[in-house]
From TrEMBL:
Cofactor: Fe cation; L-ascorbate
Organism from which the protein derives: Bugula neritina
GO BP: collagen metabolic process
A GO MF label: L-ascorbic acid binding
Domain annotation Fe2OG dioxygenase: ranges: 242-351
Enzyme Commission number(s) of this protein: 1.14.11.7
Key words, A-Z: Dioxygenase, Endoplasmic reticulum, Glycoprotein, Iron, Metal-binding, Oxidoreductase, Repeat, Signal, TPR repeat
Top-level EC class: oxidoreductase
Stated family: Belongs to the leprecan family.
Protein name per Swiss-Prot or TrEMBL: procollagen-proline 3-dioxygenase
């Protein structure tokens, strides 16, 4: 059953493969072309229909909203023509149901059906993880949700300062949501720098970053993946994206009431009515998220969970080695960093192997090659 659901859910990405490469947003590209072509030949009704199909996936897309405005103002197309084809509406509903089913299979169903030996073995592994040094200090119940935890012991002070220095020295300005996305800034009152695996690999190749630092980066993030997979009793969790991110207060006035990172979910776009839509630009394949914090010598910067009305449910104070992990659909944000610099290693996981983060495998290959040629220097 699980395989069938996975296959159906992954259908769009499987069919998006051209020459073995995934073409992002293939469906949206097709709707865009259809909207354009129908409008060009004067069939505005069909043009409007495909504009609506596009906007169903990506309601805030600026280009398509401009096209819609053009059709309404210049071609007198009435608003009621902007109805997506019924089959598209049903397709979106099916995707939501399949996503819920997958989630159910991986959590309740699996945990109810594997309480036997396998689960016991996993619990023992959790206990002994990293030499028994991990300590869970908040569970889902403490944090006001269903799939959340906070645990300490994932990095030593030395490892934390190495990663912070790395992000500080070679990170790039802005926050990157995923591979190929333009960097963004959330608050004018903070500088934000981030560093992905891909960039780190290039820096090692150019001799600007010591290779053991990249190994450490990979290893610490891999530990968060293994632990999260076991904790949530999941079949297999894959990385989707990894980055180091530091936020530095520029404006040290304590009266700030903005957020360092506004309330959001990591796999859907929160709407005004509090619901969350799986729009095409919202990384819908992300299933779980994690933040491994690297320091606590700053003011503010608490991570917090909220309910669907953006009311705070619980908060987490970052410190070196502390991991907070949660269902990627949970609403959360970061309070203003009022002074100092706050750094974290952020990880996003998927249950879909098609999305497995390629740059991690590439970085590992490169490190193995260096190792085989005895080119690794021990100093960091
Ligand atoms: O840094 C944090 O504590 C959370 C950041 C976050 O939610 C994100 O990057 O999506
Ligand atoms: Fe997030």
């Amino acid at each position: 059953m699980e395989e069938v659901i996975k296959c159906k859910y992954g259908c769009t990405s499987t069919l998006s493969r051209l020459d073995l490469k995934i073409v992002d947003n293939i469906l949206l590209n097709i709707y865009h072309h259809l909207q354009y072509s129908y409008s060009q030949v004067g069939d505005y009704k069909s043009g409007a229909e495909y504009a609506a199909a596009f906007l169903l996936h990506d309601p805030l897309n600026a280009n398509m909203l401009t096209n819609k405005k053009y059709l309404m103002q210049e071609k007198n197309v009435p608003e009621k023509w902007f109805q997506p084809p019924q089959r598209e509406v049903e397709h979106m509903q099916r995707l939501d149901t399949l996503a819920e089913l997958m989630q159910y299979l991986h959590t309740e169903y699996v945990s109810q059906h594997s309480l036997g030996k396998k689960r016991q073995k996993q619990l023992a592994e959790l206990e002994g993880f990293l030499g028994g040094n991990i300590k869970v200090n908040a569970t889902a119940a403490d944090l006001g949700g269903t799939e959340r935890f906070v645990a300490d012991g994932f990095a030593t002070p030395e490892q934390c300062s190495h990663l912070i220095n790395m992000c500080q020295k070679v990170g790039v300005a802005g926050y990157t949501r995923g591979v190929g996305d333009p960097p963004v800034h959330f608050s004018e009152r903070e500088a934000i720098f981030s560093l992905g695996i891909n960039q780190s690999q290039h820096l090692v190749e150019e001799g600007k970053l010591a290779s053991p630092l990249l190994s450490m980066y990979l290893e610490l993030s891999e530990n968060t993946r293994r632990y999260t997979q076991m904790y949530f009793n999941l079949h297999e969790l894959y990385f989707d994206f990894t980055h180091l991110v530091c936020r530095t207060a520029l404006d040290e006035r304590s009266s700030r009431d903005d957020l360092s990172h506004p309330v959001h979910a990591d796999n859907c776009a929160i709407q005004k009515d509090g619901t969350c839509h799986k729009t095409s630009s919202s990384y819908t394949h992300r299933a779980y998220s994690g933040l491994l914090y690297l320091n606590d010598n700053f003011e503010g910067g608490e991570f917090f969970f909220t309910d669907n009305h953006k009311h705070e449910q619980s908060s987490v104070k970052p410190k070196c080695g502390r991991l907070v992990a949660f269902n990627a659909g949970d609403y959360h944000g970061v309070k203003a960093v009022r002074s100092g610099r706050r750094c974290a290693l952020a990880v996003w996981f998927t249950l879909d192997p098609h999305h497995s983060e390629q740059s991690r495998a590439d970085a590992r290959d490169m490190l193995d090659k260096l190792h085989n040629h005895n080119l690794v220097h021990d100093e960091l």
